[in-house]
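Quick one: structure tokens for this chain, please?
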Amino acid sequence: MHFVHRSGRARQARAICYNRPPQAGARKASAVPSSDHVTITDGRSLGPAQLRQMERIFFEASGRTFTPGPERDAFRERWLGRYLSDPGDVVLAALDAQHNVVGYLVGAVENPAEQNRFSDISYFRQDFRDLCRLYPAHLHINIAPQFRNRGVGGQLIAAFATRAAASGAPGMHVVTGKGARNVGFYRRCGFDELRGATWNGSEVVFLGRRLVGTA
């Protein structure tokens, strides 16, 4: 997903997933080259300027305008900040040839329905608890507009799938707005729409994908 807000439509990466994610046993590299000279790398190695680029993409994709203050800070913390601050979470960045951040993925590999730090997102426990056991890893992804539809999103998904499978997660999921354009992107990357719910006055859907090489 990236995030779901009250508009009911998460503005998300629309990149085409050209290749299926690699199996869990595939060799991992620190950076995976793409045909557009974009590399996928560990986001925890980013410098301050690159982190600001990531944050710019995050707020641009939200479709919302914030003034500095508690509301903006809470929104960032819910959908981005908590993953950057937790060393156990996954942070991936897509860098162009000049090492600018052109997309990112953040996520967690453990079941969010069993973690108090996600209690502010009620659908994990109230609507999708059983599905979270089967698809515990979850992610949020956003791509800069000029790099959408170029395979960058698919590469980020593939890299996250490899990490989640290596951690032993049997599946991964995203939650996004019902009918949002990014639903098609996730389906092309192997996700299935499994259930819908209402959250904060908006219709959302849970999309899950089983991970190979796990029990």
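The longest helix spans residues 70-85.
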